[in-house]
Structures are given as C-alpha cells and as structure tokens.
C-alpha cells in the first residue's frame, strides 16, 4: 500500500525501521530494514538514538531519530510503517503527528494473507494474529482508519488523508 502510494507521490518520504530479526529472502540491509544485533539495538536505545521502539512478534523494531530528522529537514511528509506501540510513542513526542491505522477487512482475511505470504511458521502466524487483535483495540486512538480490502481504494484513501492533513 505504501509502495503504491509512493509511486503516485514520490515526494512522500519513508523511514527505514531497525529490527533485531534476521533478514528474509530478498531483504537488503539499509533498504528493507536496518538489521541490528540485540547488543547493537540495546546500545542505540541506551544512547537515545530511537524515536520509538517496541518489542513486536518476538523481536525489537524501532525508528531511528536520524531517519526522521533527515527527512524532515528536506521538507517532506514522512511515512513511518510502525506498529501501534510505536505510533503511540511517536504521538507522545510529536503531538501533531497524524496516525493512520491500516486494518484488514477481517481477522479471517488477515490470517489468509499471512498464510499466503509463506514467510512465517505456524507459531509466528498465531503470534501475529494475537497481536493484531490487541492492536485493533487501539485503533480508535488514531486520526484515520483505512480498511485495506481493495488495494486501489486503500491507496486512494491513504493519499487523500495525507493531502487533507498537509493542507492544514
């Protein structure tokens, strides 16, 4: 969804998250994620280098402050593809941040999508589904909710929401 939106609006900046999980096939360090060891992640947390970070799906994920400040200095709107914990932490540090919650049409469709990806084992799928249920309970904390049922419609909704807030 974000990739499609950025094809239409290449001026939208996207941060690259950091993670302690291992790269999947085809993922590139510094492009897909900043892949960090547990020790390096901890060192950077202690050094205050993260805007937000959280334990998600048995690994740590976070957004480096440098990823945001570099893009803000260019004057671009920024997209952070982050979990609910991270988004709420960003809101605490940047009260004007616009939070957009992207949700599946149903839990069943989410499960099918996870299984069809073929990147997760059964225990990981179960963990992700349980986490998704908890995250859905926090969706009302967001400014905008988009149901990702039809990709073209969801992308149009995302771009409309971004435009709306850019005009304010």
Question: Can you tell me about this structure?
Answer:
The protein has 168 residues and is an alpha/beta fold. It has a single domain, classed as 3-Layer(aba) Sandwich (Rossmann fold). It contains seven helices and eight strands, in the order αβββαββαβαβααβα. The protein has a four-stranded mixed β-sheet. Strands 1-6 form a two-stranded parallel sheet. Strand 4 (50-56) and strand 5 (59-64) form a beta hairpin. Helix 5 packs antiparallel against helix 6.
Please report the total strand number as a whole number.
8
Mean pLDDT: 93
CATH class: Alpha Beta
The CATH superfamily label reads P-loop containing nucleotide triphosphate hydrolases
Distance between the termini: 24 Å
Q: Beta-strand percentage?
A: 15-25%
User: Strand-and-helix sequence, N→C?
Assistant: HEEEHEEHEHEHHEH
Please count the helical segments: 7
């Amino acid at each position: 969804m974000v990739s499609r939106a950025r094809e239409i609006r290449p001026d939208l900046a996207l941060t690259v998250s950091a993670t302690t999980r291992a790269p999947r096939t085809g993922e590139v360090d510094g492009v897909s994620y900043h892949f960090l060891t547990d020790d390096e992640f901890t060192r950077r947390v202690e050094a205050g280098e993260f805007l937000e970070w959280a334990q998600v799906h048995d690994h740590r994920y976070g957004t480096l402050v440098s990823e945001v400040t570099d893009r803000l200095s260019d004057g671009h709107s920024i997209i952070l593809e982050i979990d609910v914990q991270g988004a709420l932490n960003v809101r605490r540090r940047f009260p004007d941040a616009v939070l957009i919650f992207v949700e599946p049409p149903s839990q069943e469709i989410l499960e099918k999508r996870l299984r069809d990806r073929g990147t997760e084992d059964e225990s990981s799928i179960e963990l992700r589904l349980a986490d998704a249920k908890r995250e859905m309970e926090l969706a009302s904390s967001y400014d905008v909710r988009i149901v990702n049922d039809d990709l073209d419609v969801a992308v149009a909704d995302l771009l409309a929401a971004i435009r709306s807030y850019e005009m304010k």
